[in-house]
Design goal:
Length: about 800
């Protein structure tokens, strides 16, 4: 056999070099004697891709042979960021690649910078999906992700004169070596039309006669695990015109328009919706949801049928996870395929559905829950509407039996919302049909049980669980902070923590060691210098690595209270200006860094961005302030910018109004990197406090249980003088644009201030003063920083995914032999 069956590509630098040069010539089409950084990046990526494909095949073949229960993770969004560094690290070939490149006169780090982000998502929910994919692969779980291959990712944020402008992110422009196009793996997805009743093989059947059919084509994105051969798959669907042409529509004589109309099919997968607040009942969004769900479900059922004769074993072999309610049309879609196409009787199909689906909620606000107008659904997916009505009918009967004719309760819990616009409540549909409903942190789950889904909790308490979010230490330490990574391994005497994060707490044993402290500080300083250089290059503001780097990086939302941060900065500026020379010597120099995108239609969020720039402009150009205070806004915050900012941060802010941040995951990434947290007692921060102790962080603000009472007090709430003074400064035009900022100020005063900035301001300033005090004592600060990293183990997505696997999905590892 000449070893053909195990003829893996070789990973020594010489073999890699040969592969890279071959790809320069045969894939990129350049001369192997002359190519630039980008072409070298392409060739290197293709060499890595070849290795991924090899492992991908082995893994899938192994899964097929072993036939374990599989998990399918359905999400409308995945924020993968860049792939090159992550891939070579997970494949264990980074040093070899670097060597190979060096000899060709290239530097790995420079090539890695050539890659653009895959930004197929908005924020937390989407990056969580990416981290969980990494954990699933690393932990050898037989799991695939399914999503949409948007041609335009999340918009690029461009700042002009302090205002956010959105530019399209046509990310496929330069090709994408990380995907494998499978033109032959495709499914027809139907829309519109009517439902007809027919007799088929003696069965009474509903037949959906569609008005439009679109083809879904598979693009596979290999997800390599770390320290394993397992490489799983993220399958993204692209919409293409369907290949079956009926003569009639072409016979009308308008050939050109007939073709153009068909080409419109591609718009379904063309653009990611950039608003992460609430559902707006847009038809295109609904089409996207159904398109991706239908293709995925068809694919899953086809794969199951490849090795099973009937559906008896379906629930033992398949688990479907819904990332929020966005993919919840998968529920009626599975029902439809089983009942209408596979001729499974309704009762059995329903039994299957109730066993395979689980979903995770990522929001706190009931207003954030998706609703689909019935009119829209009945025109787009007439058969699904029938199925939803049928599910609801049985559900309401069950409710009546249990609670009697409590009409208020029935109307609250019904999947169908009556009213001005009759709609389908996707959350209720999911609650009725899923066997597990997970919150993303403990407090979040408590809020779901006692407020948002109270009625359902009373009915099915056992369905309600929570799995606190986590992030991947591969991406957020190994890839993005190689200095810290090496240091951790050195002091633990092993790099096993990269797969077994609990080991990281071993750092606690060395926290008093002056040598570790020294090295810790050095690594962090190098990261800060790198960040300072980036900031100077991007926005021209010079900052000193001796200052405290204080960051708030996340989507701009009122509840996340970037405004509170800015008001605090204005206050600090004021204080410094009023100090005499000798007092100024005691001021801890700060660089405040804010980054994040505002949804294009979110006016207030956009004003917050402008205010940040206006205040920064004033402070940064005030010679009287010197190096004591800077405020910089980092434009176009995304995954790769995060990889740069997080390792270089001293202090980070997670300051949502208590009870509003479902979990937060940025706090975990920063914690892992030894950044201290200044935070409210909200979301997953509560669990971070339990791990590292409140003495190692700076907490402030009203508690979640106090918020309702405080709101009810309205204008009777006490607001500190400093707060009114700072708001007045903005009103008076100290930072210009007073007319533009008026509504922002109004939202903070009088009957406004829904998010309680005034109420929390005094304790916020105190927490900030505590942080300053701690920073003066650099030895103390460094110890706290080490303890943050050491205490971050629970916030690995490995832990989260392990809990889901055991408690919800009931899947086991299936490790492909090397
Ligand atoms: C809905 C309908 C139409 C278009 C877009 C949406 C939509 C997209 C994203 C709605 C919400 C979206 O994301 C919500 C989100 O990111 N939530 C965050 O999830 C994180 C992971 O669980 C949590 O850590 C954050 O607290 C939570 O805000």
């Amino acid at each position: 056999m000449f070893g053909l069956m195990d003829g893996f590509l070789k990973n020594d630098p010489v073999s890699l070099q040969k592969d890279i040069l071959d790809h320069v010539e045969y894939t990129v089409g350049r001369s192997r004697f002359s190519f630039d950084d980008f072409e070298a990046y392409q060739a290197l990526s293709h060499s890595v891709r070849d290795r991924l494909i090899e492992r991908w095949h082995d893994t899938q073949q192994y899964f097929k042979r072993k036939d374990p229960k599989r998990l399918y993770y359905l999400s409308l969004e995945f924020l993968m960021g860049r792939s090159l560094s992550n891939s070579v690290i997970n494949l264990g070939i980074k040093d070899q690649c670097a060597d190979a490149l060096n000899q060709l006169g290239f530097e790995f780090e420079v090539l890695a910078e050539q890659e653009g982000d895959a930004a197929l998502g908005n924020g937390g929910l989407a990056r969580l999906a990416a981290c969980q994919m990494d954990s699933l692969a690393t932990m050898d779980f037989p799991a695939w992700g399914y999503g949409l291959r948007y041609q335009y990712g999340l918009f690029r944020q461009v700042i002009l004169d302090g205002f956010q402008h959105e530019q399209p992110d046509y990310w496929l422009n330069f090709g994408n070596p990380w995907e494998i196009e499978h033109l032959r793996i495709s499914y027809a997805v139907k829309f519109y039309g009517t439902v007809e009743e027919k007799q088929l093989d003696g069965h009474h059947c509903k037949v959906w006669v569609p008005g439009e059919t679109v083809e879904a084509v598979a693009y596979d994105n290999p997800i390599p695990g770390y320290g394993t051969r397992n490489t799983t798959n993220l399958r993204l669907w692209a919409a293409k015109p369907n290949g079956h042409y009926d003569l009639e529509s072409f016979d009308t004589g308008d050939y050109i328009n007939a073709v153009i109309n068909r080409q419109r099919a591609e718009t379904i997968s063309s653009i990611l919706y950039p608003d992460d607040r609430s559902y707006q009942g847009k038809e295109l969004r609904l089409k996207q949801q159904y398109f991706f769900v239908s293709a995925s479900v068809q694919d899953i059922i086809r794969r199951f049928k490849d090795s099973h004769r009937n559906f008896d074993q379906f629930p033992e072999k398949v688990a479907l996870q819904l990332n929020d309610t966005h993919p919840s049309l998968a529920i009626p879609e599975v029902m439809r395929i089983l009942v209408d196409e596979e001729l499974v009787n309704w009762h059995n199909a329903w039994d299957i559905v109730r066993k395979i689906f689980s979903f995770t909620v990522h929001t706190v606000v009931p207003g954030g829950l998706e609703k689909i107008p019935v009119d829209l659904l009945s025109s787009l997916l007439p058969r699904h509407l029938q199925i939803i009505y049928d599910i609801n009918f049985s559900f309401v009967e069950e409710l009546k039996k249990r609670f009697g004719l409590d009409y208020d309760r029935l109307s609250r819990m019904s999947i169908v919302e009556e009213g001005a616009v009759k709609s389908i409540r996707m959350a209720n549909l999911s609650l009725v049909c899923c066997h597990a409903i997970d919150g993303v942190s403990r407090i979040h789950s408590d809020i779901l049980k006692t407020r948002v889904f109270k009625d359902f909790f009373e009915l099915w308490p056992q369905k309600f669980q929570y799995k606190t979010n986590g992030v991947s230490q591969r991406r957020w330490i190994v890839v993005s902070n190689p200095g810290l990574c090496a240091l951790i391994s050195k002091w633990l005497g092993t790099d096993a923590w990269i797969r077994d994060i609990d080991l990281i707490m071993g750092l606690r044993d060395h926290v008093e060691d002056a040598e570790l402290q020294q090295q810790w500080k050095m690594v962090r300083r190098v990261n800060k210098i790198r960040l300072a250089e980036y900031i100077e290059a991007m926005i021209g503001v010079k900052i000193s690595p001796d200052a405290m780097f204080d960051v708030q990086i996340k989507r701009i939302h009122e509840y996340k209270r970037q405004l509170l941060n800015i008001l605090g900065i204005i206050h600090r500026y004021d204080c410094i200006k009023n100090m005499n020379k000798s007092d100024r010597r005691n001021v801890v120099p700060r660089v405040c860094i804010i980054g994040g995108k505002a949804a294009p239609g979110y006016e207030i969020a956009k004003k917050i961005i402008k205010l940040c720039h206006a205040v920064g402009e004033t402070i940064n150009n005030d010679p009287d302030i010197g190096g004591l205070l800077k405020l910089v806004f980092i434009p176009d915050y995304n995954v790769s910018v995060a990889e740069l900012v997080i390792p270089g941060s001293d202090l980070s802010q997670h300051i949502s109004t208590a009870g509003h941040e479902a979990s937060g995951t940025g706090n975990m990434k920063l914690l892992m990197n030894g950044c201290l947290l200044l935070a409210t007692v909200d979301g997953s921060t509560i669990e971070i406090i339990e791990e590292i102790g409140k003495e190692n962080m700076f907490l402030f603000g009203a508690k979640a249980h106090e918020v309702a009472t405080l709101r009810a007090k309205g204008q009777a709430r006490k607001v500190p003088l400093q707060f009114s003074r700072v708001v007045r400064k903005i009103r008076d035009g100290y930072f210009g644009s007073e007319v533009y900022f008026k509504s922002l100020c109004d939202s903070l005063e009088g009957s406004g201030d829904f998010y309680l900035l005034g109420n929390d301001f005094a304790s916020y300033l105190e927490a900030q003063a505590e942080a300053d005090k701690a920073f003066v004592d650099q030895e103390r600060w460094t110890k706290m920083s080490i303890l943050c990293t050491a205490g971050s183990g629970r916030f690995s997505s490995d832990r989260t995914v392990g809990e889901y696997a055991e408690k919800t999905w009931r899947i086991e590892p299936c490790r492909c032999p090397f």
